[in-house]
Write the structure tokens for this entry.
Amino acid sequence: YRLPENTKKLRAHIAFAQKKRESGSIAEIDLRLEGGVAHISVDRKKTMQELMDAGRYDYVNDNFVKVFPDVEPGAEELDIVFIQFAKAINNDDILSELDKMGMRLLSASELLAVGLTFPDLQWKQGLVGLGSKASVDGGLHVPVLWVRGTGRTADLVRWDGDWDGHYRFPA
């Protein structure tokens, strides 16, 4: 338990708990996914299509790379937490909860980096990148990594619904 990676995770859990207490947020860390805290590398030099190809998804929504063509600028190394909610919650409330704690949700390219680093996670829980949204067929959509049928999927889901307890929001 005194391994450096566990010490780093413990610090992240303590920081999250302090922010949660101060803000009164209903957000929780899902400890079942990589102990709730993980490290990802985002190759900002690659195109979105290259990130998608590297992830080797069984199904990719045709609009994914069209509406998110560019890899967003930002840090190449990120420590993230997997946020969950005990009840159904809409996107605006999720953003509000995390804003209270000074956290941001991952962008589309960062979500693909999670899928590349931890390809088995989406078999356990759907992963949602609420840090990116785009208009498709007249409605706002967000990127989601989940399982459809028997394969890993990189998909787009409408913004206007609620998310139940089966989804996680990397932040």
Remarks:
- The mean pLDDT is 88.
- The longest strand covers residues 139-148.
- The two ends are 24 Å apart (CA to CA).
- The chain is about 35% helix and 30% strand.
